[in-house]
Every structure is written in structure tokens, then in C-alpha cells.
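Q: Predict the assembly, please.
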Amino acid sequence: MDVGSVSSSGTPTALSLNLSAFGKLTAADRDLLKTTLTKRVRTVPARRDIVREGDRPHFVNVVLEGWAQRSKQLADGRRQILSFLLPGELCDPNIFILKRLDHTLSTVTTVRLGEVPKQELRELVQARPAIAEALWWTELVAGAIQREWTTSIGQRTAYERIAHLFCELFVRSRTAGLTDANTCEFPLTQSDIADATGMTQVHVNRTIQEMRRDGLIDLRSRQMTVHDLDRLMAVALFNTNYLHLDHRADA
Amino acid sequence: MDVGSVSSSGTPTALSLNLSAFGKLTAADRDLLKTTLTKRVRTVPARRDIVREGDRPHFVNVVLEGWAQRSKQLADGRRQILSFLLPGELCDPNIFILKRLDHTLSTVTTVRLGEVPKQELRELVQARPAIAEALWWTELVAGAIQREWTTSIGQRTAYERIAHLFCELFVRSRTAGLTDANTCEFPLTQSDIADATGMTQVHVNRTIQEMRRDGLIDLRSRQMTVHDLDRLMAVALFNTNYLHLDHRADA
DNA sequence: CGGCCGCTTGATTCACGTCAAACATTGTGG
DNA sequence: CCACAATGTTTGACGTGAATCAAGCGGCCG
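A: Predicted assembly structure:
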């Protein structure tokens, strides 16, 4: 099993759960969450499906380490990446209600995955209303991100669209404490970016070259360096509102 | 105040709330919902904003009659329509948690709107877990629709994209009991369709003409006739899964 | 060392956008 | 009830951003 990416992420960083940042949680809530979400952990190699469209999942998954993605595929094979999941993020709280998944969840890198039986999380949520609220908060933010992506693909130019994706991933990484100054992990290939932005890999390549020439970013050895975040945000018409960061305890 | 559209929707059809179709509700739940959602009703003329991006809303809104839309606008004015809201649909249950709206809600036609004070709905939801679940169901379905739209704009061609939108609106209308055989209300202008699909109004026009020539649909006097739904669904690569209709009592 | 995966480059094509004007429909006010 | 204004649709000529096709390059991994 390929575990290269795991070790390559450096010293095992302190786990920072996105959920736990929700402002209304007590320290006790956060402890409970952490133990529940890390009780049962498995490692999935890069580029594998975690759960597929049509499945009836019995577990809620958390990405503890590595990146994952949601995607949908049309009947003829065209694929759209719908969002990326960063370390500390919950994949599918919605399985409490929806019977079948309408999209596929896959790993981008090797992923350490926390698995929580549906029933166990349900009990936690019933015992702790604040945790229920935290769960819905992350789900609603995911919805807001999805709306922003629709807007991005529908209205932004290729250049703006890629810039916007870079802004989002950098800001989310930073919020999760995963950046080092102006640099963050960036395990996506240009084909991934193409599938996420609705363009071809070739055009992604040419657009990124242009961004490099413009001195906005640097992308190499699975790392992204943002030279001037303000300028990147400006060209991307990026506005952090949609991430609803104001619910975080650290806001 | 212009109430033309209201009267033009024919005999005041029996109100069919989307929420009430949720399978786990009892008759008592449905009654409670209906009285709560229709206690306070106002009429908003066509093409007005209901709540705007950045607002901190105090009411949950239901569309009782007419069509509404969600949209986002970029700093330079480009606008993306994110979804359409049909009669019987809840606009924004998410205000329980999110502090500010990240998108704007506007009317397409004249809309009869039910307004429920946040607090009142919160109490209802606490008293009736099944209603809470119904609420989240509609919110999760809205999320699934958003993912499908992202996919549509990202992967489908102009022709497929419009066909897909037509399928969705027809199927959702039919589910809400708003179709008459193969015909449904269709108050969108070609500019609306353009803003929703990320294309220009001119190209929408040419594409629709092509669909008419292909005998798929007819669009006139604010009505859409679908001549062959199966064929329309086939060319659109339409799959109803994402609407999660299997939670409906009438499924 | 060799194979594979991801990146880069070039030539060409095409789906869709832009600009501009005319036409059709609908609702309004005199 | 007609006219006209506003809104929505259609048409044409032309431009362009991004797709397509095809080939070569480079670094990483077994």
C-alpha cells in the first residue's frame, strides 16, 4: 500500500478538526468529538473511491490527513469535481437523512480516514445540541461553497476561475492551520483542476503559466506559494463571506 | 401593486407544501406545518428582491405561489442564478445557523410568500423531530440540486444544459402537482435561462430554437410543453436520483 | 535504467460570445 | 380601444476563448 503521501506530510501535525472550531462548542464537546471521530481510523491510498454514487453509507467519514474530493459523473463519462475536502473536514453528515449518495467521494492523496457508525454519531448529536449545530454549520458552509463554485464556473473566466480555486484552497488551508507563511500543500494535478473548473487540462496548463508569469503564484512539488494573496483575491473576485468563518471560535 | 400573475395562475390551487411530502410526517405534523407557514402571508411583485446577500434575516420564507430564485453577483455585476424556487418550497431554513445570507433571494413572478419568525419555527422544530427532519431533507435536496447545477455548467454543452434545466423544472413542477399533462408554467425569460446556465441570452435563444426544431419542447406564453420527456431526459443526461424523491410519502 | 504519469508546446477548429439592429408581444395610460 | 413604451425574442455578421488533436519533454518510482 502506498503510504508515501502520509509520511511526506511531515511531522504528524496536531489534529485540527474543522468541526471543533464551531464557536458554540465547549471544551468537553470538543473532546467528545475528537474521541468519537478518531476511534476507528483507516488509511486509504491515493486515487481510490471511498464511497460511490448510489451507495447507502453506514458510516460518517472524516478526513484526518490528506485531501479528498467529491465528484459526479455523467452517463457518458464526463466528470465534474464538486469540491475538495481538506484535513479535518467531515465528508457526509447528510447520510442521516438521505438514503443514497448522489455523488462519489474519492481520495486525492493517501488519506487517513476516521469512520463513525451512523448510530454512534446520531447518539452524540442527540446528547449534545451544540455538536448537532456544529455539524449543520459545516454542512451549510459546504452548501455555500457549492453555490460559489456554480457561480465561478458560470461567470468567471478561466483565469479568474483558477485564481478563485487557489484562493479558496489557500484560505481554507490557512484556516485549518495547514499553511506555512504563504505556502500550502497542493496535491492536485492540472487534470484535477481541469475537472474542478470545467475546463481542459491543456487550457489549465496555459492559464497557470500565465498566472506564474504574472507573479501571482508558484506551483511545484505539490506545494503552492501565493506571492500576493491580496492581488490573487482581487483578480479572482474573491470574497471570503461565503466561507462563513464568523462562526469559528477563532474568528 | 401588480397581482396579475397571481390571478393568471388560474383557480387558487390547493396549497401543496413540498415540506409536507416528507414521508415521516404524520397528518398532525402536516397540519401544524401548514398553519405555521401560512399564518402570515404577503405578496411581493415580480422581479423584486426578497432578502439580499449580507442580510441577517429574521424570518423563514416559503413560496406559496409563484416562482422565486437564488442568485449571487460578482463585484463587477456579473450575475449567476443558483436555483429556482417553485410554489410550496422553503427558501432559507439555514438562517437558523448562518448569520448572514451569502446570496440574494428574488421573485421571478409575483409571489405569495409565507413568513415565519425564526423563533416560531425553531419551537416547532424542537417540538416535532419529524418536522426538523423534513426541514433538513429539503435543505439537503437543495444541496444536491446545487451539485447537479455545478456539474451541468461544468460539463454539459449548451444544448444539454438547457435541456437539463427544462427536465428539472418540469419534473419538480410535476412532483408539486403543478403540471397539466405535458405542460407546466414557465415564467422564465431567455435572459433568466442565460443567467442560470452561464451562457448569453443570444445563444440561449438559438439553442432553444434548435430544441424546438428537434421537436423536444414548445415554449410560449409563459408555458412549457414537453413533447417527449424521455427523449428530453436522454439528451440532457438527466437522472432523477439527485432530487431524492424517495423520501416523499407519495413515492 | 526504463516506464509511466504529469506537464508543456504547437497547430488548428469550433462553440459560444459580442455587437447591433429589427421585430414581436404584452401591459399601460390616455 | 388604440398607441406607444417597455420588455422579450429573433436575426445577422463577426470575433475570440477555449477545445481538440498530436507530439515531445521531464521527473519520479519501481
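Chain A has two domains: 4-151, 154-247. DSSP finds eight helices and eleven strands in chain A.
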